[in-house]
Amino acid sequence: MAEEKSRWVLMATAQTPTNIAVIKYWGKRDETLILPINDSISVTLDPAHLCTTTTVAVSPAFTADRMWLNGKEIALAGGRYQNCLREIRARACDVEDKEKDIKISKKDWEKLHLHIASYNNFPTAAGLASSAAGFACLVFALGKLMNVKEDNSHLSAIARQGSGSACRSLFGGFVKWVMGKDENGSDSRAVQLVDEKHWDELVIIIAVVSSRQKETSSTRGMLDTVETSPLIQHRAKEVVPKRVLQMEEAIKKRDFPMFAQLTCADSNQFHAVCLDTSPPIFYMNDTSHRIISCVEKWNRSEGTPQVAYTFDAGPNAVMIARNRKTATLLLQRLLFYFPPKPDTDLSSYVIGDSSILEDAGIKDLNDIEALPPPPEIKDNNVTKNKGDVSYFICTRPGRGPVLISDESRALLNPETGLPK
Ligand code: PMV
């Protein structure tokens, strides 16, 4: 690298989805490497509605590694960022950009500093696995910038060291995180089970539930559970291994009743081990419980499951409907039980793929007021608590990470390497 050329900036921009586990990861056997005590399975959510975009840049003019999240500079000092940066740098290769006349050799990467800008297209504070999409996107984008030769499954073992669930965001469709056996974590990686086209009738509706309290972080929660819950050992050793096999079969065969039964049971058992922790951890709240009972009642009245529900380390409900018709009926039910506060703008209350709202025949708040009670309700004495749900997101299974070649969509200025 000649000194006179020290003003160049080389960048890569990527977009990476978030994911929601249908067989949960809860509990680590190694805190630093982030190695889990069981396999887990997730569905990747459509990046059109929930994703992270990250631009990474390198320049000899940079004096330190720096990162901006949603426009605000954040500290990169945390061990998890440092672990990801160290691991990806160790795999960097020679890079040549003939057009810009830039040559970076493998050994230069150790000395060069990076600028990183990341943006979530959904509220970071909503508790929607933003760290999963974030770390996956960071590792994927750096892999491209540094010409890392490893495939996405190997990259997933690096993203895992940022946030466990991030390793599953390196693929679209349904993804399995294999817990692995190696002490160094090299075989604890994500693999794609099927791509997003395999089961494309599925529709996903997320209820972002208003929460009053700050939840226990997943890191703290898992630690406490592994230390104090007798139930977690039974779950990890006896229950999950069988469930993972059944879930893989259900996904392969698109067997919705089996899929829904396993998804709901696994979410409920995850929350049971949280309750079995000392002190007990409560992630779900009253609204979460009401959503469960609404779905359970409906599924029972139909004789076969129409909708699966799952909850992560927070009160938000993720509901997976067997097809579009069912999703329409689900949205009608959800809006009946959880109407918006007066004067709410409907387009900010149901976001994402709002065409489901049109299918449900809902154009304004009056249409919500006029929704009849679902037929499975025996007594008409239902409480409707306006404001218990902040908003709904309609989405579907989606694709894995992609590189964005259009430089106008980069989050960093190509001349300065600073946020635009
Ligand atoms: O990767 P973390 O530390 O955000 O933990 C995720 C834990 C759950 O979301 C509750 C389950 C899962 O498998 O994603």
Automatic annotation (TrEMBL):
GO biological process terms, semicolon-separated: isopentenyl diphosphate biosynthetic process, mevalonate pathway; sterol biosynthetic process
Keyword Lipid metabolism belongs to the record: yes
EC number: 4.1.1.33
A Pfam family this chain is assigned to: MVD-like_N
Catalysed conversion reaction: (R)-5-diphosphomevalonate + ATP = isopentenyl diphosphate + ADP + phosphate + CO2
Cellular localisation: Peroxisome
Class of the enzyme per the UniProt entry, highest EC level: lyase
Domain Diphosphomevalonate decarboxylase-like N-terminal: 17-190
Gene3D superfamilies linked: 3.30.230.10, GHMP kinase, C-terminal domain
Keywords associated with the record: ATP-binding, Isoprene biosynthesis, Lipid biosynthesis, Lipid metabolism, Lyase, Nucleotide-binding, Peroxisome, Steroid biosynthesis, Steroid metabolism, Sterol biosynthesis, Sterol metabolism
GO molecular function, one term: ATP binding
A Gene Ontology cellular-component term: cytosol
Biological role: Performs the first committed step in the biosynthesis of isoprene-containing compounds such as sterols and terpenoids.
PANTHER family (UniProt xref): DIPHOSPHOMEVALONATE DECARBOXYLASE (PTHR10977:SF3)
Protein's name in the database: Diphosphomevalonate decarboxylase
